[in-house]
Every structure is written in C-alpha cells, then in structure tokens.
Amino acid sequence: MKQxxxxxxxxxxxAQAAAGGRREFGELVRRHGSAVRxxxxxxxxEASLADDIAQDAFLQAFQRCGEFRAEGxxxxxxxRIAARLYLKRRAHEARYVAEVETEDAAPTFDTAGLMxxxxxxxxxxxxxxxxxxxxxxxxxxxxxxxxxxxLPLGTVKSHVKRGLDKLRARLDxxxxxxxxxxxxx
Length: 185
Description:
Helix content: 55-70%
Largest sheet: none
Strand content: under 5%
CATH superfamily of the largest domain: RNA polymerase sigma factor, region 2, helix turn helix motif
Order of helices and strands: HHHHHHHH
Radius of gyration: 19 Å
Number of helices: 8
C-alpha cells in the first residue's frame, strides 16, 4: 500500500516527480508555494507577478526535477529558480523602462510601533532589497548574486551588509521610525 504523500520527505517526492509523478510534484507545490511567493514579494514583486513567477518556477522545476540532487532542501532549490526568473524578468523590463528609485515612502507601523519585516524591506533601496532577499531568502551566495545581477562581488557584499544594517536599525525596538536611537529617560 502506498504511503500518503504528506508522509513523504521532499527528496522522495522530488525523485518520484522526476519519474513523472504529477501528484508528488503537486504535493511539493502545495508545501512550498507560499514560501516561494513570499520570497518574490520580499524581492519587490507585486502579488500577481509573484504568483506568475512562482508558477513559472514550479513549471521549470517540474521539467528539470531530474536535475535536483538533494544536496540541499528542495525549497532552497525552487527558491533559487524563482529568484533567477524574477531577476531575468527585471533585467528584461529594465531595457525598456528607466528605473526610478524612491526612498520617500513612509514606513507603516503596527499597533505596537514596530515595523513588519516586509515593510522594513520596502524601505531599502531596490538593489539592497534584492541582494538581502537573494542572500537570506533564497540562500544564494554573494558570488551567485553577483553573477545573477551582473554586479561586482564587493558591491553585492556592500549592499547585503548595508541592507542588513538598515533592517536591524529599523526593526530594533530601541530605535525610532528612522532608525535613530530612542533614549528613554
């Protein structure tokens, strides 16, 4: 008797999907679809675009499931595919549309006065947000990000560090909305 899909490990599901198992791959999509869409949203994609790219990423993963070597978690593999698709789409759009960065968006706060991570990410420059999301959300190395974004390695490292420093300052309860130390006394 077959084991229910929910009891199988991702690696087992991926191996069966590589052999043509559509139900098994459907279980992987069910398990990891929201994580992939969440990463894409953190990278800056609107909800509908995140859904489209996530769907494309899972289609590509299904076609290439035989390439998954289980050297890391399946979710990391699919997130890398999605992140690369998003970057490719952005690069394509950048050829036709001039990018304008805006840093005047006012952050929103929850009732306790603490900023949500997604809102904090929106306060970073677009390049910082992408570098931080690719590094800590998709698990790409600095070298992989540099290659994907066509940036020097040192520049990527700087964007990741600067972005993380800004996020820490924004999310630290001991700082105000602008990341300044809020002294009580």
